[in-house]
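The following block was generated as part of the benchmark described in Methods. Ligand: iron/sulfur cluster.
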Amino acid sequence: MFQWMTKFIDKVGSPDLDWIQVEVTSHCNAACIYCPQPLLGEKQHMPLSLFKQLFPYLGYTCLVYLQGWGEPLLNRDLFAMIKMCKAKGKRVGFTTNGMLLDEETVRRLVDLDLDILSVSLAGTSRSTHNRIRKGTDLAKIITNLDRLRQIKAQKRALRPALHLAYLMLSTNFHELPEVTGLAKRLGAEQIVCSNLALIPQEALRQEALFNRRDKQHHFISVLEEIAGDARRENLLFNYSSPVLQERSERCSENICYSCVVSVKGEVSPCVFTSPTLSQTAGINCDKAMNRIFQNRQAPLYPLSFGNIGTENLTRIWNKKEYLQFKRFHDPETKKGDMDTFPRPRSCVNCYKYFKV
Ligand code: SF4
């Protein structure tokens, strides 16, 4: 009776999520020049036992995205995690640097019926991509993705859908027009182009397209042209604006219908607030890793509303502080009501307010 009551109470007020993002590892086999991951001190894989703590709550989401500040294929339990989520009827995806997609791995992913395999690119030429995504090799990635295409054809499998995730930088933007041809050749369904929204050091400030005001008309017209090419090729093409929009009142991320679970089980609203980035400084602490925001260094404050290792996700979701945070970012909240909350300090220095 007590257990039944607990389950019932947990269902009341349970989250209704578009996705749960789970950081299955903070290890990486690459060292991309723009990524804060190489700066992390302690790195770890999420243990399967911790991952299993999420199970009672998978019913609250359709999609489980196994991604954080690391390369998911380094966690040997990744396949077991995918299998468990698929057994619960969930859509499952992750983003990879593509270096570990050997034949056996690709066959396993196809057999597991993984839904989305997104591969990160930072150029369409080997020299550009390899310079930016240090430790990876575009030629090898393309060989691996050709193999994925062949194995899917052999098995008559439609999944995983291949997505190309292109990080747009000032020094690789000139290669972006080639991405539709590459996507077509590899059998990709979607191209997603994002900005360098978290600038970890001053030397990279000019790499963010939105900091290159002199070239913004050019960026926009090239992106519109590529979008036209992609439409003609039946490819989905999504891109973030290369221009800072008027500062909005709220974050442009899906804060009210998603959450991020860190490698240690901490529940945060987004990857930028993940305690993984400031692990040595502790959670909700005053010390934090820095980011470059509007020509100055600004703290990247971690924010966790609870830990799935010790708490129930429904209760975490309904904590007063989390409800207030979501209310602040909820498009339904009226401007007058928002003025009663202080802007969350983790968000004050974030470009996601500018919709880039
Ligand atoms: S504005 Fe806040 S919630 Fe949104 S991405 Fe930035 S840090 Fe995360």
